[in-house]
From TrEMBL:
Pfam families in the record: DUF1918
Ranges of Basic and acidic residues composition bias in the record: 55-64
Stretches assigned to the DUF1918 domain: 1-57
Species this protein is from: Streptomyces lividans TK24
InterPro entries: DUF1918 (IPR015035)
Region described as Disordered: 44-64
Name of this protein: DUF1918 domain-containing protein
Length: 64
């Protein structure tokens, strides 16, 4: 998994009815775009995370 600042991290819901969580990557803390990432969720909450297999990166150029 590789990301750059400004990409989106999407954590898919794990159970039926649970919504996906979308966050903007505000800092890449690993080498060459690898996790961990500092992210800001839609509600303004910030966290440091190392995404698992239920997550995907949406790169800026594909969000248009």
């Amino acid at each position: 998994m590789h990301a750059t600042k400004g990409d989106q991290l999407v954590q898919h819901g794990r159970v039926v009815g649970e919504h996906d969580k979308v966050a903007e990557i505000v800092e890449v803390m690993g080498d060459k775009g690898t996790p961990p990432y500092r992210v800001r969720f839609e509600d303004g909450h910030e966290a440091v995370c190392s995404p698992g297999p239920d997550s995907e990166i949406r790169h800026r150029e594909t969000q248009l």
